[in-house]
UniProtKB/TrEMBL annotation:
GO terms for molecular function: ATP binding; ATP hydrolysis activity; polyubiquitin modification-dependent protein binding. This is ATPase, AAA domain containing protein. InterPro entries: AAA+_ATPase, AAA_ATPase_domain, AAA_lid_3, ATPase_AAA_core, ATPase_AAA_CS, P-loop_NTPase. It comes from Acanthamoeba castellanii (strain ATCC 30010 / Neff). It holds the Pfam family AAA_lid_3. Residues 215-224 have a biased composition (Basic and acidic residues).
């Protein structure tokens, strides 16, 4: 079997998730032909470079001559070296082009020790080095990492002195420097380096905000290009912004040829933390265009006329630097609606309008503004000639969240069990800033765990997970974090699983199909052309478990969950109720997939006026109209499911209960004997019961009892046991008998059915 393959390869850079891994992805056919197993060591040789990699199957089918190479461990050959400023630089490998290269399988032995020569400042400890480099294949004189990465070394000596060695958890790692530091000093240097890095990050951020004129946020930003590839998500907004900046500032001749005026302004709108400011700064860096940034709220002063003067100076500075971008962050604080504004704010709005209209004389200045409250802006700004285009930067969907997580964890030592796809699915409602904070907090947990174990001399070497970010780290952070888009609207419900609901097997199955299947089997739904349900109505007598079912959905469906009720909805002010419904559905659309739960919906919306019948008052009619529009109006609530509950189906307007709005009406009957026994088992599983307690007998004696009444029975029985003896260890059958007489019953099934029959109503619609 040929263990070397020499041919013309199409060499590509690695996928984002493979960066820093030392992987080489080959076609399955090539791996079979070369007899390679998974993670087998390989040497990729080109005329200018040697790269040590490990073989993995390619994700692209049908491309036998394609390789994706991560150049983590490499060595430049004499023919490929370039001299620049006395420093040697490697020739570039991979760039989506064909290149003559050979792939050879190589034999490796386990490394007992490896010495590394830092090429960039490094004060890592031995466990940290082992954590970063574990499972890599190295050789003397090869470099590991890159100058722009978290580490950059040249391999010195190895033991044994074999051609290729592989680093394992038992390999002794050492840094070869002019001053040999003790392990204790290395540990102190590590902590200082961490503190220095955090300080440097803060300094860099504060330098971005440093004053260069009248305002504290104003600055000229001429960052280097190439940062666009490091942005996760935001692809739609990024493409639109790049297009506008390119035709306005980089190549305005294309517009002049068609006698088109270049755009003067662009408004970025979206929730806080979604990445609006990042977009503007990244595009400016990409095209090497000066960015004059200012925060809207920081322009104001206590002296009349100075705010307008500061604003003029910003535009004057941009004019001197043209082509340039004026970036106004939080523009809603600078230019609110003039009918609601004070005199100073009105003058500032008028000044900005004048300056933007005057941009015709400075055709290579573009105004980019960002806001999370676009409806608070003065309408005069939102027209062609001023802000010609508006780009909505939405919260990322699951694929975009995965992309963002890969960016922020690219340089992190992740444990092999970390599934970023699963983390992305658990972060509904998270924006880019939230995901960055999530990764940072998870890494801090890993660092604390590592430092704790490193200080504990009795524990010996740290465990394999001590230097890695583990799934448990992400789980701990997620337990305490909510997405920015969900704050203020999130409902904190008690964790309730489907197992906490006794009986109702068919109802639970139907709800799981309606709520979970459109997400789990999205491709299948699209293939069959199935539209997910828009609404579900739970109908049943009081205490039947409707609200408990809603809690189970909120806890288990992994979707954003919003709740409305009459107490929170109605307001003495005209229009507030309708506005709350609109805001709730807007938040739900931003955080889709989402569930909006309306309990006792008959108290909120009722039948509209019909001749000879009672009808809803004006507020209920307006609320109903708003709800109908949100369900299937002009702006469809894609990915939003309405879940409503009622025990008065006759009170609801018929326009609400039809396909496209509330598609399904699920009847929640009172439990039968078997279901009652299951409910009793659920609510008594935390109790210690005497052997004489027969839950089947209790279920037989509680005909027509609701789930809420059975729960109350179990709690009352426990209280009876404590009243009898505070040190009682178990609940007896006599305690249940006493509790049964004490529980206050609600409306029985017979009474509820009789009431409906008297009104001429049935269970169905």
């Amino acid at each position: 079997m040929d263990r070397t393959r020499h041919q013309v390869w199409r060499v590509l850079p690695p996928a984002r998730e493979d960066e820093g891994s030392g992987k080489c992805r080959l076609s399955v056919g090539t791996m079979r032909a070369m007899g390679l197993s998974l993670a087998a060591p390989l040497v990729l040789r080109t005329p200018n470079k040697e790269v040590l990699v490990r073989a993995y199957p390619s994700r692209q089918e049908g491309e036998s001559a394609l390789v994706e190479v991560d150049q983590l461990v490499c060595r430049a050959l004499a023919s490929g070296m370039k001299e620049r400023g006395g420093e040697q630089q490697h020739g570039k490998l991979g760039g989506d082009g064909e290149e003559e290269a050979s792939l050879s399988a190589c034999s490796v032995v386990s490394a007992q020790s490896v010495s590394l020569i830092p090429l960039t400042p490094c004060s890592a400890t031995e466990p940290e080095l082992r954590c970063h480099l574990e499972r890599l294949v190295v050789k003397s004189d090869f470099t590991v990492g890159s100058a722009n990465g978290p580490f950059h070394f040249r391999v010195g000596s190895t033991v044994p002195e074999a051609a290729f060695v592989q680093i394992h958890s038992s390999t002794k790692m050492s840094l070869v420097t002019e001053h040999a530091a003790s392990p204790l000093e290395l540990g102190l240097h590590t902590q200082r380096a961490l503190q220095s890095k955090q300080t440097q990050t803060t300094t860099d951020e504060s330098e971005d905000e440093a004053p260069t004129g009248e305002t504290s946020r104003e600055k000229q930003d001429k960052g280097k290009g190439g940062a666009i590839d490091s942005i996760g998500g935001l692809k739609g907004g990024l493409a639109s912004l790049r297009e506008l900046v390119y035709f306005s500032l980089v190549a305005p001749e294309a517009l002049k040829r068609f006698s088109i005026e270049p755009p003067k302004g662009l408004l970025l709108k979206g929730p806080s933390g979604v990445g609006k400011t990042l977009l503007a700064r990244t595009v400016a860096r990409h095209y090497d265009i000066p960015l004059v940034a200012v925060n809207g709220g920081e322009l104001y002063t206590a002296y009349a006329g100075q705010t307008e003067s500061r604003l003029r100076k910003v535009f004057e500075k941009a004019g001197k630097l043209q082509p340039s971008i004026v970036f106004i962050d939080e523009i809603d604080a600078l230019c609110p609606k003039r009918e609601d504004a004070q005199s100073t704010e009105s003058r500032v709005v008028a000044q900005l309008l004048t300056l933007m209209d005057g941009l015709r004389q400075r055709t290579r200045v573009l105004v980019v503004a960002a806001t999370n409250r676009p409806n608070s802006l003065d309408p005069a700004l939102r027209r062609p000639g001023r802000f010609d285009r508006e780009i909505e930067v939405r919260p990322p969907d699951e694929d975009e969240r995965l992309d963002i997580l890969r960016v922020h964890t690219r340089a992190m030592p992740l444990h092999r069990e970390v599934d970023l796809q699963q983390v992305a699915g658990l972060t509904v409602g998270f924006v880019g800033a939230d995901l960055a904070a999530l990764c940072r907090e998870a890494a801090l947990l890993a660092i604390k765990r590592y430092l704790h174990m490193a200080r504990d001399a009795s524990s010996g070497d740290p465990t394999p997970t001590a230097g890695h970010v583990t799934p448990e780290d992400f789980e701990q952070v997620l337990a305490k974090m909510y997405g920015s888009c969900r704050r203020g609207m999130i409902v904190d419900v008690n964790k309730t699983g489907w197992d906490d609901i006794g009986g109702l097997g068919s109802i639970k199955q139907k709800l799981m199909e309606t709520v979970e299947w459109p997400i789990l089997y999205k491709a299948t739904f699209q293939r069959f052309g199935i539209e997910p349900s828009r609404g579900i109505l739970l109908v049943g007598p009081p205490g039947g478990g409707k609200t408990t079912i809603a809690k189970a959905i909120a806890s288990s469906c992994n979707q954003s969950f919003f709740s409305l009720n009459a107490a929170s909805l109605y307001s003495p002010y005209l229009g507030d109720s309708e506005a709350l419904i609109r805001d709730t559905f807007k938040k739900a659309r931003q955080n889709s997939p989402a569930v909006v739960f309306i309990d006792e919906i008959d108290c909120i919306v009722a039948k509209r006026a019909t001749p000879g019948e009672g009808s809803a008052d004006g507020v209920q009619a307006r609320v109903l109209s708003t709800l109908l529009n949100e369900l299937d109006g002009v702006e469809r609530s894609a990915g939003v499911l309405l879940l409503a509950a009622t025990n008065r189906l006759d009170m609801l307007d018929s326009a609400l209960i039809r396909p496209g709005r509330i598609d399904q009406v699920l009847q929640i009957p009172l439990p039968d004997q078997q279901t009652r026994q299951q409910i009793l088992e659920v609510h008594s599983r935390q109790m210690a019961l005497e052997p004489d307690v027969r839950l089947a007998t209790i279920a037989e004696q509680t005909e027509s009892w609701s789930g809420a009444e059975l729960q109350s029975l179990c709690q009352e029985a426990a209280l009876v046991s404590l009243r009898r003896d505070l040190l009682a260890a178990r609940v007896t059958m006599a305690d249940f008998a006493t509790a049964k007489r004490a529980v206050t019953r609600g409306l029985s099934l017979r009474e509820w059915s009789q009431e409906r029959q008297e009104k001429g109503l049935s269970w169905g619609v």
